[in-house]
Amino acid sequence: MGDKKKKKSKSKRNPNADHILASRYVHEWFLGGAPGPPLSHDSDEFLPPLPRYKAAERIVFEFHSHSKHSDGFLSPTALVERAHRNGVKVLALTDHDTMAGVSEAVQAGHKFGIKIIPGVEISAIFSSREGSGAEESVHVLAYYGSCGPARYEELERVLSHIRDGRYDRAKNMLLKLRNLKMPIKWENVVKIAGSGVAPGRVHVARAMIEAGYVENLKQAFSRYLYNDGPAYAKGSEPSAEVVVQLICHTGGVAVLAHPWALKDPVSVIKSLKTAGLHAVEVYRSDGKMDEFSDLASIHDLVKIGGSDFHGRGGHDESDLGSVNLSVQTVFQFLKLARPIWCNAATEILLSFAADPSDMNLEHLTRFRKLKIQSGIPTDNNNKDVLSMCLTLWLTSEERETAEIEAIRLKLSDTQCC
């Protein structure tokens, strides 16, 4: 009887030990310190004291949000301010097919103490290979480290092509609406989208509201703009498999967005896993979606989730930080993401070391200006630039690799052009 009690007591301690270690790993990434040890303890008697990592100090992550740079209603700064009010500490900005808002979000994040994960939600098309030949729209989230994408230009070429296709798509939607006796002026849609923003369905829907054809966004989508609806039109999206491969190639984490919106999620997940998919959204503000959690488990994919906040207003939209992600969920994501992001950062720095030109210097500071952190020298001295990037991009342990040391040595012997 005594042995049973001991075993029962021990089994209760282990989950707590795992929770503490996962919490420490997440906190140290957030704070920029070295990662904690792997979760391999058999007993909590070996755990060091961790006063900083209490359950009450939970770090709230928001993995899915949009700004006015795509189809959101808020500027990146206003989005970050709202996240701050909601207690969010880590925010991924994932605008559709653009990373134009990330730099502003990073600056606002610095002001409010929020860590920004540079992201993008990429539009794609999935074509079934299992006889039907049916196509459906798929969105793949890409998450990058603080350094941003490696081979940024390759990613931007694809995103730019998708954005260009959005203009033709929106015009085709207006043509279909005209045929439905609901004419809308192109100038109105462009004005609603904003300067330099590729128009999407939300912008067309807002124009429909202004014209008095529908009462709200939900009505516009449910009656006319839903996938394959009477006013729906396709763009120039690449295949979903190509998008996943591109994200992997540019140092990002590829995550399937809102699989519950898909007609054939089983085929999509199976195919994208083969292409290199890392994770699937399974958590929403109303809880875990068991069907997609099971699919993620079958295909050995990490499970995450986010609010998909756009700032439309109303009670039917989940707010920033409303998705309750456990520390274990966040830990599993970071355990997957950090080596990928570290490799991307190393690749970017190696490129700069090989050619420390002003052009490559701009690549290093694409999402964060040199003067953003006080106390870091802001001239173009190579060592100062490297020191700033290493501090912002990597943890202390990640900065102590042979490759990083080689970059330090190389840059110490050269001067920026």
From TrEMBL:
GO terms, molecular function: 5'-3' DNA exonuclease activity; 5'-3' RNA exonuclease activity
InterPro entries according to UniProt: PHP_dom (IPR004013), PHP_domain (IPR052018), Pol/His_phosphatase_N (IPR003141), Pol/histidinol_Pase-like (IPR016195)
Pfam families reported in the protein's UniProt record: PHP
CDD domains (alphabetical): PHP_HisPPase_AMP
Entry protein name: 3',5'-nucleoside bisphosphate phosphatase-like
Residue span(s) of domain Polymerase/histidinol phosphatase N-terminal: 61-126
